[in-house]
DNA sequence: CCTAGTAATGATGCCCAGAT
DNA sequence: ATCTGGGCATCATTACTAGG
């Protein structure tokens, strides 16, 4: 029976159903009027099939869950936190970890194919190459640094989050929290995945019209990330920049330079230095204009007096600058507090993520309850129909009993035999189904076991490689004495040197050779430190 | 109303070519 | 070497439809 191509839309069904209800049309008439097969309309009319149903199996995440994830990814993208495929897959994994629903995903993580389908179902998500891989983006230019920060500020302003610079906790007003380090590192830091694995494919909202918001500033330019920021002004910044003209990511990697990354302290320091510079330039300009004006108006004598006054003013300004420096020191202290706040906020973000997952789980439970109710309803309807059948049979038996006794007896025996046969067949089918189920479960378990073994093997290889790398930093002196050198500065330990161990590759580095020394007053034991060579 | 055939969909694995 | 997208085959599931 070849199936006729579908010629109707969901709204036709809705219109047909409304016509039946409002105008009292018959099912056949309505079906004819809207060009829908009668049986299809009848099924939908009786609720046997959903009105907006799609062919094929439903996705394993509900429409609400998928939409929630899409909205979250778009929102994150709007503030510069583009979510990678891995991030989204990890979100799904976290969701499924806390959910008992059945799904085909290995280790609760959907695969690349699922991602394709996901993007297909939600075309407002599209993927593209990570901007860090674009060579044009790593060309060094102070102008670009300024542009990036300006765009970042503009974006924060657009998202009503400009005050984040003073109130970083506002970063966490989203559904799933993210750390400020996520923004500053230039790649996303979802609550479920550390920002340690930037994937080359990024999902972000596709601008539907050219009039939409300007492109995101994107990740922090590599050159910005490597700029030594401190009390330095733009001059020293430029010096450093000219030392690294147009270096590609690979070249940086070869030279042992860290990937794009900037600490919270560095970010605030940069912003403060930039504002101070702007203020200073404004002051100088004002002073110059003022002087020109006075030169024209006043004579030589007055000028001398003015010069004396100016000297006094300059002294006062110097005094003010000294005070400003003291303020800066005070701000440095505050940055330590900011770093602490960031840690607290990360925890808050995780709590928020937890809440989201709980909500999703509740939704899943609701679905489960609905399913159970549906199953119950079906069982009841089957029971009712079975009862009706039994009644009919009883009626037949009564009629047969009332007829000639010997024939009725024979018929009864025959019916009994048939009934026994049917019951036997049914039992056998059930037994086979149970066997099949067991076989499938065993097979799945075996696959999971093999997967775990594979993961363990890979982890062992990674660990062994890391140990080898650490060994490579042991240098042998002329007197055959072996010493360990810091892989960052290639120097051995000094007397008062503090060392820090990478939690991922077992390398030891001078604390001062890492950005960790900026986090003064914080217990480093609580940090998951990843060195720049990882 | 029921049934059997067909279409559509979601997910997987495998392979390939291209980009980095 | 690694990652990606695209194509293809496969399986399972569900919706749709014609005909009995």
TrEMBL record:
Residues 483-534 form the PHD-type domain. Residues 188-211 have a biased composition (Low complexity). Coiled coil: none annotated. Pfam families: HTH_psq, PHD. GO terms for molecular function: DNA binding; zinc ion binding. Residues 307-331 have a biased composition (Acidic residues). It is found in: Nucleus. Residues 1-51 form the HTH psq-type domain. InterPro entries: Homeodomain-like_sf (IPR009057), HTH_CenpB_DNA-bd_dom (IPR006600), HTH_Psq (IPR007889), Zinc_finger_PHD-type_CS (IPR019786), Znf_FYVE_PHD (IPR011011), Znf_PHD-finger (IPR019787), Znf_RING/FYVE/PHD (IPR013083). Residues 295-306, 367-378 have a biased composition (Basic and acidic residues). Residues 187-233, 295-334, 364-386, 416-450 are annotated as: Disordered. GO terms for cellular component: nucleus. Residues 416-428 have a biased composition (Basic residues). Residues 27-47 bind DNA. Residues 53-128 form the HTH CENPB-type domain. PROSITE patterns: HTH_CENPB, HTH_PSQ, ZF_PHD_1, ZF_PHD_2. Keywords: DNA-binding, Metal-binding, Nucleus, Zinc, Zinc-finger. Residues 224-233 have a biased composition (Polar residues). This is HTH CENPB-type domain-containing protein.
């Amino acid at each position: 029976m070849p199936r006729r191509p579908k010629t109707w839309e969901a709204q036709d069904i809705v219109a047909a159903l409304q016509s039946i209800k409002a105008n009292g049309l018959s099912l056949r008439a309505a079906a004819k009027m809207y060009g829908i097969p009668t049986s299809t309309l009848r099924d939908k009319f009786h609720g046997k099939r959903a009105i907006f149903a799609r062919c094929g199996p439903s996705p394993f995440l509900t429409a609400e869950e998928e939409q929630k994830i899409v909205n979250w990814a778009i929102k994150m993208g709007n503030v510069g936190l583009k979510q990678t495929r891995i991030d989204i897959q990890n979100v799904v994994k976290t969701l499924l970890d806390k959910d008992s629903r059945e799904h085909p995903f290995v280790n609760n993580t959907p695969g690349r194919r699922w991602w394709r389908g996901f993007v297909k179902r939600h075309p407002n998500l599209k993927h593209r190459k990570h901007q860090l891989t674009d060579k044009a983006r790593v060309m060094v230019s102070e102008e670009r640094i300024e542009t990036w920060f300006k765009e970042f500020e503009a974006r924060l302003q657009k998202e009503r989050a400009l005050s984040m610079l003073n109130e970083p906790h506002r970063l966490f007003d989203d559904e799933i929290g993210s750390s400020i380090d996520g923004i500053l590192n230039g790649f996303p830091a979802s609550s479920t995945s550390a920002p340690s694995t930037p994937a080359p494919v990024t999902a972000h909202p596709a601008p539907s019209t050219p009039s939409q918001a300007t492109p995101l500033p994107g990740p922090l330019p590599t050159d910005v990330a490597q700029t030594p920021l401190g009390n330095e002004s733009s001059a020293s910044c430029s010096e450093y920049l000219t030392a690294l003209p147009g270096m590609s990511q690979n070249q940086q990697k070869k030279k042992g330079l860290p990937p794009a990354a900037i600490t919270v302290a560095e970010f605030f320091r940069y912003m403060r230095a930039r504002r101070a510079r702007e203020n200073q330039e404004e002051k100088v300009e004002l002073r110059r204009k003022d002087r020109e004006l006075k030169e024209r108006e006043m004579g030589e004598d007055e000028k001398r007096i003015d010069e004396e006054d100016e000297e006094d003013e300059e002294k006062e300004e110097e005094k003010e600058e000294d005070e400003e420096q003291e303020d800066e020191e005070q701000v440095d202290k505050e940055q330590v507090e900011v770093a602490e706040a960031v840690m607290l906020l990360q925890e808050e973000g995780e709590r928020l993520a937890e809440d989201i997952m709980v909500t999703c789980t509740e939704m899943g439970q609701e679905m489960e309850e609905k399913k159970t109710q549906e199953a119950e309803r079906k069982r009841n309807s089957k029971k009712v129909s079975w009862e009706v059948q039994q009644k009919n049979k009883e009626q037949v038996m009564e009629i047969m009993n009332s007829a000639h006794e010997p024939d009725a007896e024979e018929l009864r025996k025959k019916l009994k035999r048939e009934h026994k046969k049917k019951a036997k067949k049914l039992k056998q089918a059930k037994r086979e189904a149970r066997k099949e189920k067991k076989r499938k479960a065993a097979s799945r378990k075996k696959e999971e076991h093999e997967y775990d073994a594979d993961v363990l093997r890979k982890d062992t290889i990674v660990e062994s490689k890391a140990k080898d790398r650490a060994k490579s930093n042991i240098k042998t002196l002329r007197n055959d004495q072996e010493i360990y050198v810091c892989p960052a500065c290639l120097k051995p330990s000094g007397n008062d040197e503090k060392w820090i161990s990478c939690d991922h590759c077992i390398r030891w580095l001078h604390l001062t050779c890492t950005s960790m020394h900026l986090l003064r007053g914080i217990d480093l034991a609580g940090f998951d430190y990843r060195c720049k060579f990882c």
